[in-house]
Amino acid sequence: MSIVASIATANPEFKHDQKAILDYMIRVLQSPEDERKLLSILYHRSGIKSRYSVLSEFSKNATLSFFHQNGKPQPLEGRMALYHEQAGQLSIKAIERCLDGKCTPDEITHLITVSCTGLAAPGLDIELTENLKMKSTIYRTSVNFMGCYAALHAFKQADMICKTEQNAKVLVVSVELCTIHFQNRNDMDNLTANLLFGDGAAAALVCSDKMASEKGWKGLQIKNFHSDIRFNGKKDMAWKISSTGFLMTLSNYIPDLVEAGICELVTASLKTTGNSPSTIHHWAIHPGGRRILEVIEKELKLNKNLLESSYNVLRDYGNMSSPTVLFVMKDIWNNKIDWNKDELMFAAGFGPGLTMESMVFEVKRMCE
Questions:
Q1: Is 98 one of the annotated active-site residues of the chain?
Q2: 3-state DSSP percent of the chain in helix, strand and coil, to 5
Q3: Given 148, 162, 178, 207, which residue is catalytic?
Q4: Fold of 223-365
Q5: What GO molecular function annotations does the UniProt record carry, in alphabetical order (predicted)?
């Protein structure tokens, strides 16, 4: 068995109120009066109060600089330059918080980087290895372009490593700079993306339960994985590269697809562990949007307080793509888990495909 022994998160310095972002969108998109009313309704219903960005210009009265140079959209190379300037720094903040009190970077044996908002070679994995002075012989893996469920997929890789190498210390780091891909377009896909996404990073330390026990570390023992692809949703969620950045497709049918598949996903995921939904104490559901949380709440017949951490993360950060579910898990870790009891956590994320990825964790008091 393997243990998630630590989780930490980080955000860029610029925190933007959702109302300020709405004002920015109205100003930049030069929306007519009827569209302004629609945007105001959508932003009001989003369940989001604030989001973070590596860019300052989404705030009130900020200078329109990055996306509006010489009246032309920022080209892809300019967006990627900003990603490479900022993504590593933000990742390091999360990593340092994650490893604090546990181990030093040069003790990490395996590094798994997760991102879908920027790519290069040499990439984030080598940048982090060099800047954190990890061993040059470290085993590196990159999970790219999987979207919002990718951190859970990275946990699969970490779990397999720890099951075969008892002394492994696996660092998973997920970072997304979604806001650098803002598109000055008035279609519904871009309006939805501009409404939802923010920037953030999260890191997790995964090791064998044997090592966690020896170190006296508490954590979340990985019990099971289960994933499913709803191929009829391939066109409803997509993330494609263009000359002016990455283009997001988010149809209004995504909540319906999640609604149709969530019960089957939960049942199949819990079947191998011998559990039922009623035995789950904590639900770490990726808050892809307010309506997604509402349909899951309805289909699984959950009390709203069981999704409180998901709603809180959506409210305070928006959807940050892959790190978001780790933000939810961190909130549960800090505020919900009773570390003196045997409890279960169910985590799920949704992304292109339409892919539905899930995990089951058991709370472990390894410090006993």
A1: no
A2: 45, 25, 30
A3: 148
A4: Peroxisomal Thiolase; Chain A, domain 1 (3.40.47)
A5: acyltransferase activity, transferring groups other than amino-acyl groups
